[in-house]
Amino acid sequence: MATTAAAAAAPLDEAKARNVLRQVEFYFSDSNLPRDGFLRKTVEESEDGLVSLALICSFSRMRSHLGLEGEVKPETVPEETVLAVADVLRRSSSLRVSEDGKKVGRAKELLKPDEVIEQVDSRTIAASPLPYNVKLEDVASFFAQYGKVNSVRLPRHVSDKRHFCGTALVEFSEEDEAKGVFEKTLDFAGVDLEIRPKKEFDAEREVKKEAYEKAQSNKNGGESYPKGLILAFKLKKIPADSGAEQNGGDKVDGTEGAEKEGSSNTTEKSSIGHEQKAPEDKGNAEEQTDGSEEAKGVAAGETAQSVDKDDKSPSDNDEDTVSREDIKEEFAKFGTVRYVDFSKGDDSGFIRFEDSTAAEKARAFAAIADEGGLIMKAHIVTLEPVSGLLECNSRRSG
Questions:
Q1: C-beta separation of 352 from 383 below 8 A
Q2: Short-list 6, 26, 22, CA closest to 14
Q3: 124-128 and 95-97 as β-strands: parallel, antiparallel, unpaired?
Q4: Where is the XRRM domain (predicted)?
Q5: What integer pLDDT is reported at residue 2 of this predicted model?
Q6: What's the first-to-final CA gap in the chain, in angstroms?
């Protein structure tokens, strides 16, 4: 419970103070604030441009930095904690703290958000492919070799926002630093990286979103894909520490976005900032602030966490072994499944639908996914059409 303002506020230890300072500076930075709908609105509605520091302390990453456990709301943040944080934030040249230490904001007013976003995008690159379980801190450290990194975003999968899409958005402090990376041949974890301007990534993502929405609304979603009743599929194991979950299919929730931790969550690791973990309480301010649209982020210089925080190892649980029944149930959302040719433990098989439209929908859904397939029990399921004699010979009752 909150204590009186007169209570002596124990100072934060240096490591904790450093993380708190970086985190709050990030929340109000050009990298995050223009895109953070909740926090920006809160600032704009404030007469003096300051917001409740208790509110800021209730955000997920701040709770973690401060060691606040359980259900934390602005009104339940201990007052001595707020005052201790205020003392730390007064060190910043980019932040302004109220005299009583209970409110915080930018030292300089935010310019036109659209112009700021344009500037930020001009110094941001899109790098891929990256491991599904990549850590924000590792991406930040890697690109820090080529310039000062303001932020790193790990956008979520278009069709399943619980998972990282494989492309990181890295914002440098200067546009020239970003341009310099385009001229380099980079290797991350043994894989050559493709470096593109963020605008190209955004344009491609919009196309995928539109295709996904069409597929979801059953409006000619699979029209451009080969027709046929039977699809061949292959299973590819996702690294155990990636925390992958079964594909959500029609349960995909488009509201989950950038992790709350960094942008007020929309941003990522290098920056202080996704695309945020899924909000726990949609009515909670933190969720909206910390959970921007599709990225997951943390502050630059902070200890990053892997995209999925589940410590369970899929390989340790038989529930993560895909069975014929799992395949049939998962693909039933696209249409009636007549047969599934697959045995538990296999890494490939065949699915036969009642009609070709269902097969087309399944192919369309998988093709627009960034991984190129559906996520099912810690596996990526990729699909290919089958025709001719193969179609006749690949039928086992499901």
A1: no
A2: 22
A3: unpaired
A4: 306-398
A5: 40
A6: 58
Q: What residue type is 262 in one-letter code?
A: G
pLDDT for residue 353: 82
Q: What is the pLDDT of residue 228?
A: 61
For residue 233, the model assigns a pLDDT of 87
Among 45, 72, 47, which Cα is nearest to 61's? 72
The 3-state secondary structure of the chain, one letter per residue = CCCCCCCCCCCCCHHHHHHHHHHHHHHCCCCCHHHCHHHHHHHHHCCCCCEEHHHHHCCHHHHHHHCCCCCCCHHHCCHHHHHHHHHHHCCCCCEEECCCCCEEEECCCCCCHHHHHHHHHHCEEEEECCCCCCEHHHHHHHHHHHCCEEEEECCECCCCCCCECCCEEEEECCHHHHHHHHCCCCEECCEECEEEEHHHHHHHHHHHHHHHHHHHCCCCCCCCCCCCCEEEEEEEECCHHHCCCCCCHHHCCCCCCCCCCCCCCCCCCCCECCCCCCCCCCCCHHHHHHCCCCCCCCECCCCCCECCCCCCCHHHCHHHCCCHHHHHHHHHHHCCEEEEECCCCCCEEEEEECCHHHHHHHHHHHHCCCCCCEEECCEEEEEEEECCHHHHHCCCEC
Q: Please give the pLDDT value at position 147.
A: 95
Question: Alpha-carbon distance 11 to 248, whole Å?
Answer: 45
What are the tens digits of pLDDT across the range 64-110? 999 998 888 999 999 999 999 999 999 999 999 999 999 999 999 88
pLDDT given at position 266 = 37
Tokens of 184: 């380099």
Residues of the chain falling short of pLDDT 50:
1-8, 219-227, 243-317, 387-398
pLDDT reported for residue 372: 66
Cα of 36 vs its chain's centroid, Å: 14
